[in-house]
Automatic annotation (TrEMBL):
Protein name: Class I SAM-dependent methyltransferase
GO molecular function: S-adenosylmethionine-dependent methyltransferase activity
Record flagged with keyword Disulfide bond: no
Species whose genome carries this gene: Prosthecochloris aestuarii
PANTHER family, alphabetized: TRANS-ACONITATE 2-METHYLTRANSFERASE, TRANS-ACONITATE 2-METHYLTRANSFERASE-RELATED
Annotated ranges, domain Methyltransferase type: 47-138
Pfam families the record matches: Methyltransf_11 (PF08241)
One GO term of the biological process aspect: methylation
Keyword Transferase: yes
Family matches, as SUPFAM superfamilies: S-adenosyl-L-methionine-dependent methyltransferases
Keywords on record: Methyltransferase, Transferase
Organism ancestry: Bacteria, Pseudomonadati, Chlorobiota, Chlorobiia, Chlorobiales
Length: 208
């Protein structure tokens, strides 16, 4: 089956995420900024980087930045926006559940709204190979709502193709797979955005 992410234009994706009824772009950028401040990594990888949402918050003290996305159009847009602004920036077009990631291990891996669309075991094994011992994995996981659909209705028709792929992941299930891949849970909290949906922010440390 062709991955539906390959057929969603970056303009549709970014416009959808910025809708008041979705309101997830700012949440992702804010959480990325927060963990950069908390952990001050010298190297960071953003999984599902799309067009580079949140990259404006990357400080000069972060000396290596890796962006990964399955959609080459998203990577091209992020490169266009940031390759002249961020030193030692590299991009990889990859399916994180199937492809070996071809970059050196980093101090921090940030993945927002990625794990709902991939196989957990394979993806976390791949990510463990590119997270240095003692490094962190930060995962943002959408939580179920009693009043809202998992995939918010959108005027951008291409977005609706994701419904065939999307699956919400309970934090406990995610933690089980993460531990099997060599990550230990450090903290977890819930963020609720103005649009009404809630997200688990899970922080894991890569075991030595």
């Amino acid at each position: 089956m062709n991955n539906p992410w390959l057929n969603i234009p970056i303009s549709d994706y970014e416009s959808h995420m910025a809708l008041p009824t979705v309101d997830q772009s700012s949440m992702t950028a804010d959480e990325f900024s927060r963990v950069l401040s908390q952990f001050t990594p010298e190297s960071v990888a953003v999984i599902g980087c799309a067009g580079g949402n949140g990259f404006d918050a990357i400080p000069s003290s972060t000396r290596r930045v890796v962006g990964v996305d399955i959609n080459p159009g998203y990577v091209a847009r992020a490169r266009e926006r940031y390759e002249e602004r961020i030193l030692n920036l590299e991009f990889h077009v990859a399916d994180v559940q199937a492809d070996l990631l071809a970059f050196d291990p980093v101090d921090l891996i940030f993945a927002s709204l990625v794990f709902e669309y991939v196989s957990l075991a394979e993806t976390l094994e791949n990510l463990s190979r590119v997270c240095r011992p003692g490094g962190r994995l930060v995962a943002l996981l959408q939580q179920p709502s009693e009043t809202m659909t998992s995939l918010t209705p959108s005027p951008y028709r291409s977005i609706q193709s994701l419904s065939q792929l999307m699956r919400l992941i309970p934090p406990s299930e995610f933690t089980g797979h993460a531990e099997s891949a060599g990550f230990a849970l450090e903290s977890g909290r819930i963020v609720t955005i103005r649009a009404g949906k809630s997200f688990a922010v899970q922080v894991y440390c890569r075991k030595s």
